[in-house]
Every structure is written in C-alpha cells, then in structure tokens.
Give the backbone structure.
Amino acid sequence: MGYSGLRIIKEALTSQRGWKPVWRDPEPKPDYDILIIGGGGHGLATAFYLAKEHGLTNVAVLEKGYLGGGNVGRNTTIVRANYGLPGNSEFYSHSLKLWEGMERELNFNVMHSQRGVINLFHSDGQRDAAARRGNAMVNQGDDAILLDREGVRAILPYLDFDNLRFPIYGGLYHPRGGTARHDAVAWGYARGADRRGVDLIQNCEVTGIDIDNGRVTGVQTTRGAIRAKKIGIVVAGRSSQVAALAGLRLPIESHVLQAFVTEGLKPCLDHVVTFGMGHFYISQSDKGGLVFGGDLDFYPSYAARGNPPAAEHVMEAGLALMPMIGRAKVLRSWGGIMDMSPDGSPIIDRTPVEGLYLNCGWCYGGFKAVPGSGFSFAHLIATDRPHAPAARYRLDRFATGAGLMDEEGTGSQHNLH
C-alpha cells in the first residue's frame, strides 16, 4: 500500500477503513540466508538495502523488544555531515545524500528538515579548527559557511554573546544539516524491508550464536533455534554483550547519554545549535518542544536512564548559551546506551568468525549515520567487500594502531568521544 495525499483524502472519506498494518508480524522460519541481530535504525536499514540493492530477501531481523525501541527512539534526531577526517568525511557525506532521498525512496514521511546546523566557537583556536573543518567539508563536496560573531547574531540574536567564560566568536554553519523524526525513520525502513519480503521478528532475544569449525551456523533465541549462513550484529550499546556470545571481546565501552525535551513552545529556534565549550546541543521539534542534550554520564552502564549530576551539567550549559530557556519546563528525559569506541569512530567489518559481521562503535552520533550505515553494512554482508565510503571502519585498527580516526583529538579514552 502506497501513501499519498489522495490516499489520505480517500481514507478520511471512508472512515479510515482501508489502512493496513505497516508491516507483518511473522513467525520465525527455521532457516534464513542472513540474520540481522538488532531491530533499530541501523539494523532495519541494513535489511532494507540488502533487499533493495542486492536482491537478498531470505533475511530476518531479530529484535529482543519492539522495533525502534532502542537508541533510534532515544536520541536528539540531529542529521549532519560536518566531519573533517578522511574516512569519516566521505562516509557521512554519503549518508547525508541518502537522507535527502529517503522519503521518496521509502514512500514514508520521516519529517527530514534541513534547517541547518550551527556549531559555535568561543576562541581563536576553535575558530581556526572550525575553518579547517569547513574547508574539509567543502573539499568533500558538502556545504559549510564560516560565520563571524555578527553573522551568528543575525541568525541567532537570543544567544548570550557576552558570556564572560564562553563569549561567542562565531560559528560554522552547515545548511544541509538538520533533524528528522527518529521513530518515523525506524518505521519507514521497517515498512520498506517488509514490503520486499524481509521478516521482522519482534520479542525474539538472541541468547546464543552457534559456531561450527570457525563459521557461524545460526543462533539460539527465546523463540527457538534459527539457522543462517551469515549473521550481522548491529545492537549499539549491547554490542559487547552480543559479540561475547560468539567468544569475541570488542574494544567497546557502553555509556549512558541523556536527552531532554521541554513543554511545547511557539516556534523560536529555526536551527540546530551546538555550544562548543559546554558540549550542549539544542533544536526545536515539530511539536514545539526544545530537544537538547550534552555529555555522557562518564561511567560505563547498561541502564537506559541518567543521573542528576549529568542532568544538572546539561541545564547549566543550556542556560549559559540561551538564558531565555530558563523559564521553559522540562517535560521528560530519557537515556540511551552508547557504544563508545576508543577513537570515536565506528566499526563496520567482518569478524574473525567466518560469516559473522559487526556494525558498532557509533558513540553518540549514530542517528545521522542510519542510512549510510545500513547501505554500507548491507554491501559488506552481501559481497564480503567493504563499501568504499566505510572502508576505513576496520576492526583491526585498534589492534594495529593503523588507521585510527580520532575526529575530536581526545585520545583513546572511550568516554571522551
């Protein structure tokens, strides 16, 4: 069933009786060609592109809860391609191009809004770093505009430009960046994969990975054993736990990242704004709430909730940047489990176990990577060759030290990325 304006009018005139379920709820088959462990944005996108780009439809996505119930539904919805290092730059550029065609490709409204992202800087050194990053973005074929203080003031007059500790010197403006509706992205890819014959198996937790002579043969789940020739692990903050079922120890730490949303307000914030010195980012949702977040909670945890000190830090940074939001009431908060890699860049690679593939290490930037990650992971699983934009996301870089991509220059401490 396709979606269109005419379809909406027709259903409105016929008491909404013609709508069908967006995807099937099948029983798992005993045997598949490919299993994708993880029914979040990355896993669903992988299944979609396996079917669409490679014609592989004997595929199942296994999700221990409900589709989209993990990090894809627990983030601040920012989409951008403002990376500076080779390896990251071309990957996120590719991902942004997929974002721009996503709604037409999926026939689904994901509310992608290219409202622009402005990264503020607060010193001469940060200005020079922003200029270098902007040049790298332009050389990659993306867009970047270096704004001085007055250029930022013309767009965001309500910021505290004269904060004594963090005066605003200017900002790097990425016009094609923006936001999207996180739930809709998961639903769109789920619907697209289902329409192409992929089985989406919910409430199916993987409890074991079967290996015979160094090669995967299937999985054990709470809904029975399922055989498969190839298996992809894409479970975000649970990556280390699921990989351990195959005897793998990953260079991943899991940390909690909190996010917050205020009561609905009249439109007041047209862009995504980041506060470089306070690690604070904010945008306004389609419902009017201000959506914002900051740093990790800085200790390893698998709890999808946060703690008061980290919340206080985020609120302080927000008020330092935009004093006007101090009168807004916080409506709710939530936490996501981030899979933090040592250099802050992801892993899309084969594992030492034949037929077992890994997609993890997205830190707290996984949402913007959903289409690019799914496309590249599908290519890897289908062809056993890395997709060019993701070719540097090798697992062995942490063993050899070659090819590390420390985008923020903060070293090998997981929680600083």
Summary: The mean pLDDT is 95. The chain is about 30% helix and 25% strand. Residues 5-77+183-251+343-416 form a domain with the FAD/NAD(P)-binding domain fold (CATH 3.50.50.60). The first strand starts at residue 31 and ends at 37.
